[in-house]
Write a structure and sequence with these properties.
This is DUF2249 domain-containing protein. The protein is 25% helix and 31% strand. It is of the alpha+beta class.
Length: 81
């Protein structure tokens, strides 16, 4: 792995009822190393999560997979200079 390449941690929350997917992602973010990414698989777009991420200094990108599942990649944003 290159020094500049983040390690990706995967979490699969498909099939869980709300609010468990949100709780599991937030728990995982508490221990996520600063330079790593969290990649979540879920069967619906987690819109409430986006606001929480933005409020707490995280960025994200969401991809709709061919089977209509969602892959959400989350990372810590660099502090504003």
């Amino acid at each position: 792995m290159n020094a500049g390449t983040p390690h990706i941690h995967h979490i699969d929350v498909r099939g869980l009822e709300p609010p468990e997917p949100l709780e599991r992602v937030l728990d995982a973010l508490e221990t996520l190393p600063a330079s790593d990414h969290l990649c979540m698989l879920i069967e619906r777009e987690p819109r409430p999560l986006y606001r929480i991420l933005a409020h707490n200094g995280y960025g994200h990108s969401t991809t709709v997979l061919p089977d209509y599942q969602y892959e959400v990649r989350i990372w810590r944003r660099a502090p504003d200079a």
